[in-house]
Backbone:
């Protein structure tokens, strides 16, 4: 495990993440879960540092077998190396606990493949002035990202179901491009689901049932910087089944209260 290039500066945008916490006391952490992304992670880290130079960029190396960790470190990221692969949920749980332990009050998740356009980071963060979680929504009228067949049907059904729980219309509840404010950081550091799709669907349901405010902002996606998409008809069907199961598990599990932290 390595720590390198830690930046500990304040987020200066007005009212980020809490109505009560002064902006100068906000601290932003961008978490990048990464598994074997040596071809793209360096570009992603440099883009993040250019877009939000006040932030610390934490790459959580999720058991990679390539040079992901060293390339991220050379690009200026703090690197947290997990001893084996935990999945995106496990990597993000580690990121939220890192944030909690080091006093970060705002956490943004960015994928390591380069598809998330970091130019939208200020918009996501600004949304935290009135909400606890802000989703970068791919199906909200910006860009040309699309999904087809069973995967698209699953996304629409999940968006409808989670919207009912959150009491706010959401169009993209499986997006991994999200900003979380102080209350959500405390909640997710305490309990963040590590199961498949738990980091998206189940996490949102947990947050909504804890009384957190969830919204979305439209974003455009970029092409992957490296590698190939993994979607096909068979995997889309499995996705549909697993997504439904993740949603049901989230509903039947006990509600979790937000740990006290003196701000919301």
Residues:
């Amino acid at each position: 495990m390595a720590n390198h290039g830690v930046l500990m500066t304040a987020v200066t945008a007005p009212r980020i993440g809490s109505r009560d916490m002064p902006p100068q006391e906000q601290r932003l952490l961008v978490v990048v879960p990464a598994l074997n992304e040596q071809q793209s992670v360096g570009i992603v880290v440099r883009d993040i540092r250019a877009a939000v130079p006040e932030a610390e960029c934490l790459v959580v190396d999720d058991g990679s077998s390539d040079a992901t960790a060293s390339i991220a470190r050379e690009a200026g990221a703090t690197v947290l190396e997990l001893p084996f692969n935990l999945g995106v949920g496990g990597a993000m749980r580690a990121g939220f606990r890192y944030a909690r332990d080091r006093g970060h009050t705002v956490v943004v998740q960015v994928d390591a493949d380069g598809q998330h356009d970091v130019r939208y980071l200020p918009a996501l963060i600004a949304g935290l002035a009135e909400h606890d979680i802000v989703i970068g929504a791919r199906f909200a009228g910006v860009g040309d990202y699309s999904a087809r067949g069973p995967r698209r049907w699953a996304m629409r059904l999940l968006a409808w179901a989670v919207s009912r729980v959150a009491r706010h219309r959401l169009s993209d509840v499986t997006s991994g491009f999200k900003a979380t404010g102080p209350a959500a950081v405390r909640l997710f550091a305490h309990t963040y689901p590590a199961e498949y799709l738990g980091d998206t669907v189940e996490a949102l349901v947990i947050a909504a049932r804890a009384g957190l405010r969830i919204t979305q902002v439209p974003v455009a996606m970029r092409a992957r910087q490296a590698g190939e998409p993994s979607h096909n008809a068979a995997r889309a069907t499995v996705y549909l089944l697993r997504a439904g199961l993740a949603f049901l598990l989230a509903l039947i599990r006990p509600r979790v209260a937000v740990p006290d932290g003196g701000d919301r």
Observations:
- Residues 233-252 form the longest helix (20 residues).
